[in-house]
Structure formats: C-alpha cells, structure tokens
Description:
Blueprint: H1 9-23, E1 27-30, H2 33-36, E2 42-61, E3 72-90, H3 95-106, E4 114-122, E5 125-133, H4 147-156, E6 158-159, E7 162-163, H5 164-177, H6 183-194, H7 216-219
Antiparallel strand pairs: 1-3, 2-3, 4-5, 6-7
Helix pairs in contact: 5-6
EC number: 4.3.2.7
Organism: Rubrivivax gelatinosus (Rhodocyclus gelatinosus)
Region (Disordered): 203-239
Amino acid sequence: MSGCCARDPDAMLALLRAECSARGDVWVFGYASLIWRPEFDAAEHRPALVRGWHRALRMRSQINRGTPQQPGLVFALMPGGACRGFVYRMRPEAADAELERLWGREMVGGGIYDPRFLPCATPQGTVPALTFTLSRRSEHYTGRLPDEQVLAILRHARGRYGSTLEYLAATACALRERGVHDREIERLMRLAARAGLVDRAVDQPPATRRCGKRSESRSASVSTSTSTPASSTGTPTAG
C-alpha cells in the first residue's frame, strides 16, 4: 500500500483498515520505539525476523526528535539485509481504534514512512505484519552520515518527544534487554560514550538512567499471550 492515494492520510488509513479487515488478525512489527513505547495494548507479542530489510538511523526528524533548525534522526526500516524485532497482535475488539492512534503517531500529515505488510518469521510461524519502511528516494532519507555529524546531532537535536540521543539509547537498551544484538546500534552507543554523551556504565544519557524509563507504564501492559500457550515467548517481556 506504499505510495498509494497520493499520500492522503485519510485515504491511506481507509485502505489499511480494509486490508486489515480482510486479513483478520492485525499484527504490527516493531523495530525501534514501537518496542519500548508501543502506544497500544497487545494481545500477544513474539520475537520476529524480517528478511530483506534492515534497521538504520537514517531518517531525518524535524518534529519528534529534532526541529527544522536542528533536525534529529530516527530509525527507519530500509531495503536490504535483515532485522530482528518484535511483532504485536492487536486486540480484535480494539484494533480499529488502535490503528487510528498508531496511524496518527507514525503517519502525521500523510507521513514519511511507506507502510506495508511484510512477512515476519516468528517461533510459531510467519505472520504478515504492518511495518513502517522508508524509501531511499525519500527527501527525509539522510544516507550514511559521517560520525562527526552524527555526534553533533546526538549533542544538540531535540524535538517534542525528547532528544535523538535519548531515542537511540532507549532503543539500544530495549533491544539489549530482549537479547537482540544490533552491531550498528552498539557501535553508535560506543561512539556516544567515547564522546562523553552517555554514562559508560549504563549506556544512558545522564538524565535517563533507566531503559525506557518514560514509557514503562505503557510498555508493561503488553502480555506475551492471551490466546494460546504456544504463543508465549522465551524472551523478557517486550515493550
């Protein structure tokens, strides 16, 4: 459904709802902040692997984690490679309202992401999940930035949801706690630590000592399963 409806957010949401209705269960793939700040109560979650896409801190953010004057960075799912994250199944009775809320968060003003359903491999089988991806043709795609430029962004960029540094650190911590190792994220955290931007002992900005601290109350409501015993995971509770 990416690129449809001339990026009219209402038309895109209507199309998404129709597709979700036809599919039955609504799954969402989380690869960054949707892990530690999902914004909806999931009936079930599972660790998942998406092939053909990878997580990259290469999307410009001028609202959430930066400003037009000092843009920040957020993660996007980019073509190529593979990505480990988590899939969340929305509660059927609340899926329509939760989709609208999720859409408002991820696709404000028509959005930058290209939403699409991707096959996500889980221990219980493959499920198609709604995923927010980014095209390299997007004007918000930064490409690979020099480390010096990334550090400048980590030092200064802050938006309505906080800083790029806090966002990176929360994602790194959430993945690490759940047994997901992302070499590029860990490299960026070491880069930030060497620059004195994070506490070397806990890899957190000085003002954010606990992983996902500001989102724990919402994250804690996600259960491993409310349907079948086979759907529970062996990993720590996902956010």
